[in-house]
Amino acid sequence: MNIDSFWNIIESARSSASASGRLFDEVLVDLLAGCPPQEILEYAEQFDEVHDALYRWDVWAAAYLIGGGCSDDSFMDFRAGVIALGRDWYERTAVDPDDLAGHPAVVAAASADDEALFYEDVNYAASGAFERLTGNPDSFHDAWAGYRSVDEQASDATDMGEEFDFDDADEMHRPCPVWRGFISEPATSGTEVPDRSPMSMTIHSCALILCSRRLPAVDRLARQVREQLERHVNFLNPIRQMHH
């Protein structure tokens, strides 16, 4: 499956969802379930490529400003949501995330407590289609392991671009200047700020390896493990500071 075929599936699902009033992710699973297993795997491979291409600091800044905070897990859902917007908005976002300020869903979110564009279920359309075909929730896991090795999955690296401080409002608005005054600033406490400490990055790398299997159950387990470890880290940090 080439990139044009991938986007044809996305656009078909968008059109059908709009016409029927059904959720996009449900229609997408229906479309994929009508494809041969090989094509579903090829779709998943293309999805991973376009999803990973948005793994950049400037896109993360847009997600953070839109969501009033954005953890690395939420950023996975945000990128899936951008893909669900269709090829035009995806490509516009890839060129300049600031363009998202003009999307109707984002404009609506500016005046409501709405997690615009954060669309977790889109991440699991391929595995959902496999389960629909086989009746086995592990079928995609097995097929994907044979289609792409763990080494191949782990070798895909993305240049995230220029890093910045999520706690610095001026730095946050440098990649997304249109957002200043458009969406309320994220709160300084109680929000999900990306943690780039060595412990966090190690946990996140482990979670990515687990999530590369693209099974909802495994993804949930990875998130629970990450949350438990981070709670221990947060508990120990004040104690460490007392001894310094």
Identify the notable features of this structure and list them briefly.
244 residues; 13 helices; mainly alpha; 2 domains
How would you briefly describe this protein structure?
This protein has 244 residues and is mainly alpha-helical.
Structure explained in plain terms:
The structure is a single chain. The radius of gyration is 19 Å and the shape is globular. It is about 65% helix and about 0% strand. The protein is an all-alpha fold. Helix 1 crosses helix 2 (about 25-35).
Largest sheet: none
Helix residue percentage: 55-70%
Number of strands: 0
The structural class is mainly alpha
Shape summary: globular
Whole-number tally of structural domains: 2
Mean of residue pLDDT values: 74
Order of SSEs:
HHHHHHHHHHHHH
Report low-confidence residues grouped into runs of 5 or more: 183-218
Proportion of β residues?
under 5%
Question: Count of helical segments?
Answer: 13
Distance separating the two termini: 56 Å
What integer value in Å does the Rg equal?
Answer: 19 Å
Task: Summarize the SSE layout with pairings.
Blueprint lengths: L2 H18 L3 H10 L3 H17 L3 H11 L4 H13 L2 H9 L8 H6 L15 H10 L4 H9 L2 H6 L13 H5 L24 H14 L4 H27 L2
Helix pairs in contact: 1-2, 2-8, 3-5, 3-8, 12-13
